[in-house]
Amino acid sequence: MPGPTIEANWGDTVRVTVVNQMENNGTSLHFHGIRQNGTNQNDGVPSLTQCPVAPGESYTYTWVAESYGTSWYHSHFSVQAWEGVLGAIVVHGPASADYDVDAGPIVLQDWSHLTINQQYDLAEDSTAGANGGARVMDNGLINGKNTWGPDGSSNQTGERFQLDVVQGTSYRLRVINVAIQSTFKFYIDGHKFTVISTDFTPIQPYETDILNINSGQRYDLIVTADQDVGSYWMRSDNQNACAGIRQSTDIKGIFQYSGASGTPTSTAYNYTSECRDEDPALHTPIVSRDASGADFTYDADINISNNTNGTNIYRWLVSGTTFVARWGDPTVNGILDGGEPTDYSSNLMFDAPTRGVWVYVVVQSAIALPHPIHLHGHDFLVLAQGNDTYDASIPLNTVNPSRRDTVLMPGLGYVVIAWQVDNPGVWLIHCHTGWHLAMGFAAQIVELQDEIADTFDRNTLQDTCSSWNAYQNAYNVEQDDSGV
């Protein structure tokens, strides 16, 4: 873990076959940030675009690498991704600055000594007192590696990730936050980064010494080995103000120059612990795109309930409703049958029927907890972001603003995003904190409904659902989360 990197060139057709060899879990793969233009069936979202792949069955996803840069794939079945069903995606293409060596993915994640399913049971339990609700993870990993316990102690376990470098050489780092809940500050002691891409969007390069990166986000960085020959800590400091990790500032790798050896003794940068994105004003896309005025605006007010439907469990509410969809009856079923989309939470299904119109979404919350918001099927323009209550007097940046597919809604704050309707499908928009998605922080957009059926292979959908429903019925499998 992480799993093998999917590597392609810009414009390639990619085929990934998933074989479910587990005994008692469904599965799927979502290719995070891949737009799936005209290929909604390959988005990998159980309950929306497919049924889960049943044990013993397989499913082949096919998509075109229309964007280039860095991303990741992961299961979209329950919280399975964070048990390890994830890996990087690298699509080679142009870069907005030169470098010498592509060092590949740097995958950042949080890690628990309990299974993620055990953690989820506690996260949703509103009767467990101090043991329930918000989770504190144990550790963090860089490319699947780290140590547990103090350096030099006799019972320390594990090993650090190490990147070997040559003095005077510049390296492209493809940094991906795949955490279930954590916000990291990523940096290398004594070095600076040139940021050249946000998610799948090449930008005008800017320089920083610390990168703020939230769950689901990706940044491509260039770092030059321009310091004295030695060993330096590569750090992924968790921001406990956002979500806790016990070993929050000992998530480290080694940036080691040729000719050096030994454990680094370099000094960390000073900073204020905080829950924030990189400043979107720094993210000027190379390919300019402006937003037109809103044709439709959807407002999403985020809250939480501790006794949803009398069940004594936590559920997130989007404008008063918690999202629910069904593994065995995905949204597209109704569309392909020639009727209306299958819908189990009608207040959280939005219609976008007209090609070319602009959709604005305002997400805000009076709760002091940030949420990384991810949209499937599109990248979006970030029009505004702030730490207060949104109102119509707040100016929107519509002229070539930051463009990405995952953005942080600050705690006690808001974010305004926009995209143009051009991609037929049923697309999920959701919080990328794993517990929050499982507990209903999501909505779905039915885009260009009249064109969706032509993008689907009905036989594949029906065969997958028949196998899943037979398995679910035979083993009395109960869905205990949002379905996505």
UniProtKB/TrEMBL annotation:
Domain Plastocyanin-like, residue spans: 1-95, 105-259, 344-449
Keywords: Copper
Pfam families: Cu-oxidase, Cu-oxidase_2, Cu-oxidase_3
Family annotation (CDD domains): CuRO_2_MaLCC_like, CuRO_3_MaLCC_like
InterPro entries on file: Cu-oxidase-like_N, Cu-oxidase_2nd, Cu-oxidase_C, Cu-oxidase_fam, Cupredoxin
Transmembrane regions listed in the UniProt entry: none
Domain of life per record: Eukaryota
Homology family: Belongs to the multicopper oxidase family.
Protein name: Laccase II
The organism's taxonomic lineage, starting at the top: Eukaryota, Fungi, Dikarya, Ascomycota, Pezizomycotina
